[in-house]
Specification:
Belongs to the NADH dehydrogenase family. This protein has 15 helices and 26 strands. It starts with 14 loop residues before the first helix and ends in a 7-residue tail after the last helix. Strands 1, 2, 5, 6, 7, 8, 18, 19, 21 and 22 form a ten-stranded mixed β-sheet that branches. A four-stranded parallel β-sheet has the order 12-11-10-16. The chain folds into two domains: 253 residues, FAD/NAD(P)-binding domain; 164 residues, FAD/NAD(P)-binding domain (3-Layer(bba) Sandwich), CATH 3.50.50.
């Protein structure tokens, strides 16, 4: 009997494809595969790190991406995914793929030795924070005993050398130290945050629909607060308004009268990055659609559980704990019960930047260049400190994106300098003397600029300069506002431009196909309101 014919062995796959999908590479294998290439270690898989890694020449550089997150998030679509307008997959790009020309290690940098040109990496494959890098959205520690046990066993620590280091670790959501915000607020920085918001929204409606839920509690369950009047907060309020009016109103018609969406901001206006007429248009449109805008409101506290109001009756512990109390101050202090609070008030320094990049260090004189004479090295290699922005804590770079240094303790006579082979991009960094916004647009342009310069070997010719492509924001009910150098636009035409821009900016053809497909499916059949 003839032997069965089989397909080609997995081991016969082209080495390029196998190398691209390899998951268990060791440090020894990395060294063996390096050959005569320089190793570029990229910390982070966000807009800066992911775009840089994809753009570096693999013949010239051995690129190694180190990130606890094994995927890139297309952040402008998170608000849409949080309410089911799009599915979560459409906002993700895997860091690993058969086309990738770089290596990936799932871990986070714990420390850097600039003298040895080495970072210490802690593996995070079993990290329960996967997908929630920046928040503990809406959870309290008592609810996650299994995760706490896993957290007690930290991942293995190992060294990784570099020839060039690119720091693109991003930033965390700014909570201003307000009590309860970090523990109880919902953020919108990652796809898992969007999933939690969708689940909480639907659970609030289901709880309010129960025959045992009193009217006073229904109003609190269906009161949704957004803190922050920037593009993220306003776009989420628009998406939330859409799912409530277009989908949930059909499924819970008796509850819609109790729904309230409110945007709070400490400033005296929303969307300050837009020109006045666009901001006013947004205010009027949002108000007309039933979303309240409350400016000049300070948040004092966010705690778990509803405030007691007349008509609630006796509530069991689970129902009490299902909501939140927002303490506000606007002349006088008041308390508001909410189904959830989405927090979008800006950014704060990443703990890696705050801790690992704070101590003074020694670096070889050959790795340091003086700012006053970029071709000269200092006479001493000791006591340098990473230069940081006084207010934000961001790493300060020169306009070639090299990390700037200040003299360490007791060396005030030394001039400022830069690390020639260490760069910083994205939300964790700021170019000295500029006020570029901490946006995906800036991070992406920095990454592409640096990749081009490294590939050409001309990192000290023609400094980086940000070219704004405009700003845009969705404001609900198929309306948007767009501001560009060529002019501004508002209304339905701006909404079409907004959708078109995000569709064309999507990285993979898979998502460029999936996004319009989901738009069409949801327009025809309604949004998916499954809880899973």
């Amino acid at each position: 009997m003839a032997a069965l014919r089989t397909g080609p062995s997995l081991y016969a796959l082209p080495s390029r494809i196998y190398a691209g999908q390899r998951r268990n590479i060791t440090i020894k294998q990395l060294e063996a595969a390096k050959n005569d290439r320089e190793r570029v270690v990229v910390l982070g898989s966000g807009w800066a790190g992911y775009n840089l890694a994809r753009s570096l020449n693999p013949k010239k550089f051995q690129t190694v991406v180190v990130s606890p997150r094994s995927y890139f998030v297309f952040t402008p679509l998170l608000a849409s995914t949080s309410v089911g307008t799009l599915e979560f997959r459409t906002a993700l790009e895997p860091v690993r793929s058969h086309r990738s020309k770089y290596e990936y290690i799932q871990g986070r940098a714990d420390a850097v030795d600039f003298g040895k040109k080495e970072i210490m990496v802690r593996e995070t494959v079993r990290d329960p924070n996967q997908g929630l890098l920046n928040t503990r959205a809406g959870e309290v520690r008592d609810e996650r005993p299994l995760e706490m046990r896993i957290e007690a066993s930290r991942g293995e620590l190992f060294p990784l050398s570099y020839d060039k280091l690119v720091i693109g670790v991003g930033s965390y959501s700014q909570t201003f130290g307000i009590p309860g915000v970090k523990e109880n607020a919902f953020f919108l920085k990652d796809v898992q945050d969007a999933r939690k918001i969708r689940n909480k929204l639907l659970s609030s409606f289901e709880t309010a629909a129960l025959p045992t839920t009193p009217v006073a509690l229904k109003k609190q369950l269906l009161n949704f607060a957004i803190v922050g009047g920037g593009p993220t907060g306003i776009e989420f309020s628009g998406e939330l308004r859409d799912i409530v009016r277009e989908d949930l109103a059909r499924l819970y018609p008796h509850l819609i009268e109790h729904v309230q969406i409110t945007v709070y901001d400490v400033a005296d206006k929303i969307l300050p990055m837009f020109e006045a007429k666009l901001g006013e248009y947004a205010m009027q449109h949002i108000g007309h659609e039933g979303v309240q805008i409350k400016t000049k409101h300070h948040i004092k506290e966010l705690r778990r559980g509803f405030p007691q109001v007349d008509g609630q009756g006796d509530l069991n512990h689970d129902v009490k704990a299902s909501g939140f109390t927002l303490s506000l101050q606007n002349g006088e202090t008041s308390e508001v019960g909410c189904g959830f609070v989405v927090w979008s008030t800006g950014l704060m320094s990443n703990p890696f930047v705050e801790k690992a990049l704070s101590p003074s260090f020694t670096a070889p004189a050959s790795s340091v260049r003086l700012l006053e004479n970029i071709n000269a090295s200092p006479t001493s290699s000791a006591d340098w400190r990473i230069q940081k922005h006084a207010r934000t804590g961001s790493v300060i770079t020169d306009d070639f994106l090299r990390v700037q240094l200040d003299p360490g303790d007791h060396h005030d006579d030394k001039p400022a300098a830069v690390l020639r082979d260490v760069f910083a991009l994205g939300d964790c960094a700021i170019v000295d003397g500029t006020q570029y916004p901490a946006t995906a647009q800036v991070a992406s342009q920095k990454a592409k600029w640096l990749a081009k310069k490294l590939n050409k070997g001309t990192t000290d010719i023609r400094p980086f300069s940000f070219a704004s492509q405009g700003v845009m924001a969705y404001i609900g009910r198929w309306n948007a506002i767009v501001q560009m150098n060529q002019g501004s636009l508002s209304g339905r035409a701006a909404w079409i431009m907004w959708r078109g821009a995000y569709l064309t900016k999507s990285i993979s053809w898979r998502n460029r196909i999936l996004i319009p497909v989901y738009w069409m499916i949801n327009a025809t059949f309604g949004r998916d309101i499954s809880r899973f």
